[in-house]
Amino acid sequence: MVHMSYVPSPGAGPESTRKYRRDAPTEMTEDLVPPEIRREGFALGSRTWKLTQRLRRHDERGAEMVEFAFVVVLLIALLYGIISYGLILAAQSTITQAAADGARAGIVATNAISTAQTQAATDVGWMDKGTCGTASTTITCVATEAACPSNANNQCLTVKVTYNYNSSPLFPELPGMGVITPSTISSSNTLQISSPSS
User: Is the C-alpha dihedral spanning 23, 27, 32, 37 positive or negative?
Assistant: First the structure.
């Protein structure tokens, strides 16, 4: 049995059909030189990594500025939220303390109502929103005497401090922030009036 195979005859033709080294052109054209010898392209080699770095740097130029713009907006919003809500919590703590201090000062004084209101006004003074109780202020300090809810025979002093935060916030609000910030901050404290000791 004879095995026969077809071998094409050497001749001119496209590069893809050449089978023999002797059929390759004798002079090296620019197209036939491998990329690592030409020192260009994306072929792997010791000298081509600099080119790929240069191309990548050129393609990503300005990307850092866009990323920074997104990040800085988020950071500013986060910082604004921390400052704004920190001041809201400080105002709430001050209002609560002012009502408690006013009630404690009023129950041992001869003029309970005026003493309670004066003490409450002193406590909220750092917020610089006007004198507590006047018409030009956003903070009201109201003290009232009434029968105690637990025992009608005893008199109780109730001090209520209210801060209209919506009309005069401690920190400037961004547009739309009024939806998530409180409109008013208030606190009240009730204590039984006792006679001052001599």
Answer: positive
Task: Note the pLDDT tens digit of each residue in 9-47.
Answer: 665 555 555 555 555 555 556 566 665 555 555 555 555
In eight-state DSSP terms, residue 165 is T
Torsion of CA 156, 186, 102, 86, to 10 degrees: 150
Quick one: tokens of 87?
Answer: 């001041």
CA–CA separation, 100 and 116 (whole Å): 9
Pairing of strands 155-163, 139-147: antiparallel
Tokens representing 133 are 């109780």
Rounding to the nearest 10 degrees, give the CA dihedral for residues 168, 169, 171, 174: -100
Contact 176, 161 (CB under 8 A): no
- Model pTM? 0.61
